[in-house]
Amino acid sequence: MCVTDREKAELYWAYAISYEKVAKRLVEKGIASQDDVNETLELMYDNLHTKDVQELQASPACQEIIYAYLKKRFPSNRRVSLTDIAREINKESPSYVIQGWLRSRNTIEFLRIWESKHNSDFDESECNALLETMKTPSFTVTPKQWIVRTKAIGLVSIQGKNGGTFAHPDIAADFHMWVKPGLRLALIEWVRENAGEKGDCMNL
Fold first, then answer.
1. Averaged pLDDT, groups of 10, the chain, 204 residues long
2. Distance CA 119, CA 53 (A)
3. Interior/surface letters 31-51, b for 16+ CB within 10 angstroms, e for the rest
4. End-to-end alpha-carbon separation of the chain, Å?
5. Strands 80-81 and 155-158
């Protein structure tokens, strides 16, 4: 059977995404180091050029890969551990990664929109106060501060063994794309392609 260059690219893209899941297990079992895994991922994504990614967005196979990835990693019926995701970036101090995400005004605005849509008790005034305080360079918002001050429900902070920061799948997906810019680019291009050439995706 003859495999076209496009089919090869689709298979490569699928492998690059699925490799991340396998690699995580290899690191957990001590079979591979996180540095080795990161290096391999960088090589794979570097070899898949931007042009290839853009061409793949119209491919039903690629669309299915991205859809399946988001649905399986972030199912709508349970919260996702941001701490576990952050450990892929900083194994020793995952909370620093989460705080870095919360340090962004864009993140807070995203959380504000989500909470306003899903939480009738969300405190807009406290959110505004936090945004003002964030103008101070040394100030950092922690998940617990955000939850307590704004009465947020999208994030949950659990102390003790097996604890950490957990989030609604919508929020977890945003956090994961923040720590994985390559996934963010692929998703944006897929949305743009499927919204057509009239810029409809800008109205989402």
1. 54 58 68 67 55 48 52 60 90 91 92 94 94 82 92 90 87 90 82 62 50
2. 37
3. ebebeebeeebeebbeebeee
4. 42
5. unpaired
Contact 88, 179 (CB under 8 A): yes
* 3-state secondary structure (DSSP) of residue 65: helix
**What is the Cα–Cα distance from 204 to 186, expressed in whole angstroms?**
17
Sign of the Cα torsion 183, 186, 189, 191 reads negative
In this predicted structure, what is the pLDDT of residue 58? 47
Taking the model in full, what pTM does it have?
0.59
Which residue intervals of the chain are DSSP H helices?
5-28, 34-47, 50-56, 60-73, 82-87, 94-102, 105-118, 124-133, 143-150, 169-179, 181-195
Given this model, what pLDDT does residue 34 score? 72
